[in-house]
Amino acid sequence: MRTIFGYILTGLLLPVAVFLFYFANAEAHKVRSFDEVVEEKIIIKDVHLPQASKLVDKDGNPYLEIHQPYRIVMDGKNIPPFIKELFLQSEDKHFYDHSGINAAAIMRALLVNAKADGIEQGASTITQQLARNIYLSHDRTLVRKVSEVLYAYELEKRLSKDEILNLYLNAIYFNHQVYGVEAAAQFYFQKHVNELTKAQLAFIAAIPNNPSLYDPLRHFDNTKKRQERLIDVMQREEFLTAEEAESIKKEPIKLQVRARIDKYASYSTYVEDELKQLVAKTEGFDQQLKNAKGEEKTIIEHKLNDRVEKVKSSGIIIHTSLDPALQQKAENAVNSTLSGSSVQSSAAVIKNDTRNIVALVGGRDYDKTQFNRSFQGFRQPGSTIKPLLDYGPYIDTTHADVNSLVSANKYCVSGWCPKNYSGKEYGMVTLKKALEQSYNTAALRLFMKTGPERAYSYLEKFDFERMTETDSKSYGKALGGFEHGMTTLEIAGAYTSFIDGTFTKPHAIQKVTDRQGNVLYEWKDEPQTIWSKSTTYKMRHLLAGVIQNGTGKKANPGKAYAGGKTGTTNRTKDLWFAGLTNEYTASVWVGKDIPQSIRYLEGYAPNQVIWRKIMR
């Protein structure tokens, strides 16, 4: 009977057992290790410390550091062992023995903080401090502390002890927006960290423990006292003899604080804008933006901005074409010519043989907070457009000579009858005479003879940013009347076509490299033919006549060759001069930011005076 009952009970319990087995097995598969949970919650990617980038001029000399904080990442093998030991002995004596968390130190801190009913003592290892500096805030909260421990745990799994220590030495804060031992050495002593004496190394090592209290610029004595305490620690731990320690303490500390590099604001603000263009073109953002609409375009723009910021914070070197002497000359020309005036000005200078931008002036007494008129100020170009839209296309199309005749009498198109500046009619004149004296009716006739559509096709090759469909249909453009206009830099760029008949969009950036010299970005534009050789020769002759005998006499720089064109808009709201010598092409604009008549300056011709001062 018992046997039968046993079989029955076994038969009933077996399905239950099987069910429990499968249930337990399923649950067991759901149980994950601590490591798996932490890896899922704490994501450690490759560690890239943001560091300062810089702009250098044509000779490789830096003139601007961009992107705070100021950090220069130094390879661990170039960081002196002495300063490594200073931080190990003062911050984390058992660094090489623990796995990221010092349990004994945590217990001590818990006891102290419990008695104080607050956070009075820390227990962070070097790994925890690194985690805090890279991934977390400096809030003194329990949540942050727990996060710090978890991040430290993951860092220890992924990186070697030496890698963690080197990262730490490049990450720590030394006040005044200075991060890392190399940047600290350069900022406080203008030396590389491996060039510092032991006294100087101990001095900068004293700062990070409390950057405000041990700020050498405000509390030098505090920093010096902590330096001496660190030296005592090194002596106690037998890294120094008593004699060495005493000698190091007695060594005078003379700070040589490095001034921030920030010069030529007009030029550097353009370079930062051009960097965005270069990144966009190289990485395809420009095409994405061209094809996108509405919200999608905004999203792409944000992505581009984020990418540019990441590039700028990676310690790049932006090699530019800035010519400091010419930049200073251009700034002086604008400021001295318009000194005491309420009128503004901008200028752009391009080197003929490279088509590189060598100088830019964003305004009189320009600083970085201002609107940079050289590339952001779109103004009506007036008669500076005539060589590009009227004379050049006409000569290129008809093969006319500089002495070919054109009427400068009254001329109307679709009821629009512009007048010559003087209001007079001049009969038949040569092309040379018509351009020298800037006769409007002659220019409009040439434009119509070429054909508006064909003439405009030449202008489109210059990549003017804000030309519109309205401009293409307007006859007024023949005399410089556009919906938005052009910038000083754009006009200078277009006039480079009169160097040899080709156009390449001018750039300030030659290349962008990392600190090892590897090229990351560079422009790869190909020149585009605009004018035939014959047209180029004739146009250079016509432009030279403007300076020698025409409206541009005050621009004459006394060079072997100089040619250009004046430009004046309706009611004299803008004064222009654009032209070239054998070495440089330049454009100058003068006017008020809110367009008003400056006819009272017309006789003085500040546009021509500035151009002459720059080019002579």
From TrEMBL:
<dbReference type="InterPro" id="IPR036950">
    <property type="entry name" value="PBP_transglycosylase"/>
</dbReference>
<feature type="domain" description="Glycosyl transferase family 51">
    <location>
        <begin position="64"/>
        <end position="235"/>
    </location>
</feature>
<keyword id="KW-1003">Cell membrane</keyword>
<keyword id="KW-0378">Hydrolase</keyword>
<keyword id="KW-0328">Glycosyltransferase</keyword>
<protein>
    <submittedName>
        <fullName>Transglycosylase domain-containing protein</fullName>
        <ecNumber>2.4.-.-</ecNumber>
    </submittedName>
</protein>
<keyword id="KW-0961">Cell wall biogenesis/degradation</keyword>
<dbReference type="InterPro" id="IPR050396">
    <property type="entry name" value="Glycosyltr_51/Transpeptidase"/>
</dbReference>
<keyword id="KW-0808">Transferase</keyword>
<keyword id="KW-0472">Membrane</keyword>
<dbReference type="InterPro" id="IPR023346">
    <property type="entry name" value="Lysozyme-like_dom_sf"/>
</dbReference>
<dbReference type="InterPro" id="IPR001264">
    <property type="entry name" value="Glyco_trans_51"/>
</dbReference>
<dbReference type="GO" id="GO:0016757">
    <property type="term" value="F:glycosyltransferase activity"/>
</dbReference>
<dbReference type="Pfam" id="PF00905">
    <property type="entry name" value="Transpeptidase"/>
</dbReference>
<keyword id="KW-0133">Cell shape</keyword>
<dbReference type="Pfam" id="PF00912">
    <property type="entry name" value="Transgly"/>
</dbReference>
<dbReference type="InterPro" id="IPR001460">
    <property type="entry name" value="PCN-bd_Tpept"/>
</dbReference>
<keyword id="KW-0121">Carboxypeptidase</keyword>
<dbReference type="InterPro" id="IPR012338">
    <property type="entry name" value="Beta-lactam/transpept-like"/>
</dbReference>
<keyword id="KW-0645">Protease</keyword>
<keyword id="KW-0511">Multifunctional enzyme</keyword>
<feature type="domain" description="Penicillin-binding protein transpeptidase">
    <location>
        <begin position="346"/>
        <end position="614"/>
    </location>
</feature>
<keyword id="KW-0573">Peptidoglycan synthesis</keyword>
